[in-house]
User: Which sequence fits this backbone?
């Protein structure tokens, strides 16, 4: 699969990008062959990343409601060893978080070298939801921040922040799960119709849906402003969950292969001692 066609390296229009895949893939073959192979590779490469300890990986998920962020984290990212992975979900800021700069709560969850961190929503909420609902006007911040210039300033701040992480060994993958309005409607109806999914439904989902066009506009702007060579956005067709999961797994695998972490090599003098320790263990009387 050519993952480069999903990577944003020029200005895009979301409405021109398909929400369904155009790959010639069979679901059964993907789920029985390709997906398991990718999950095995992810586990192996993560072991090497953890042991190497020189690089970290930050995976960011952004999307409209019902696009499948939780499902991808559950079905794809669980191939990672829990010892070296952390999932941070960002909801409405607490009063303590709101009293700090918007990146304060984010940076506390940035991955250490050797680990993987997954952001379920992220710092991009501050140029998405905050912009759609003009929340800055209601925040206890200096009046100088309450201008239309704030969004361009924040795009620049985010680019700089991500460049800072990259320069310090933290690799970044950003995924926008691109869902159609029609498919979202089906998924919201399923949450209403199926008792086992009722708990997922919220009246706020319907309210936010009325802002669909505005969300598409601000997502498009944010993606165009912040997709860089070191911290690229990938637009994932999300109408078919099985394909979205497979594509994300493929991109993660290829990123880890690009990092190419290696198991540490013992110093020569320590290698020479291995035979000694082996003989000592073998000579023990159980």
Assistant:
């Amino acid at each position: 699969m050519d993952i480069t066609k999903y990577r944003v390296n020029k200005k895009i229009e979301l409405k021109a990008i398909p929400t369904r895949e155009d790959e010639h893939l069979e679901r059964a073959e993907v789920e029985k062959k390709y997906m398991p192979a990718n999950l095995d590779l992810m586990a192996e490469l993560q072991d090497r990343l953890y042991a190497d300890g020189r690089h970290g990986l930050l995976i960011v998920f952004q999307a409209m409601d019902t696009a499948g962020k939780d499902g991808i984290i559950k079905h794809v990212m669980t191939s990672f060893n829990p010892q070296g992975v952390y999932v941070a979900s960002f909801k409405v800021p607490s009063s303590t978080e709101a009293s700090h700069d918007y990146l304060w709560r984010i940076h506390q969850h940035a991955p250490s070298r050797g680990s993987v961190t997954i952001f379920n929503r992220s710092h991009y909420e501050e140029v998405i939801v905050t912009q759609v609902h003009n929340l800055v006007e209601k925040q206890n911040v200096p009046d100088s921040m309450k201008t239309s210039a704030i969004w361009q300033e924040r795009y620049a701040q985010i680019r700089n922040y991500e460049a800072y992480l990259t320069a310090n060994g933290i690799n970044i993958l950003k995924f926008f799960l691109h869902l159609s309005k029609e498919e979202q409607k089906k998924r919201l109806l399923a949450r209403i119709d199926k008792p086992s999914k009722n708990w997922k439904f919220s009246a706020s989902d319907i309210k936010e849906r009325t802002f669909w066009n505005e969300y598409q506009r601000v997502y498009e702007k944010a993606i165009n402003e912040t997709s860089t060579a070191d911290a690229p956005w990938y637009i994932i067709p999300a109408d078919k969950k099985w394909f979205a999961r497979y594509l994300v797994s493929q991109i993660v695998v290829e990123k880890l292969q690009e990092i190419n972490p290696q198991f540490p090599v013992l110093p020569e003098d320590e290698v020479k001692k291995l035979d000694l320790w082996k003989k000592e263990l073998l000579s023990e009387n159980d």
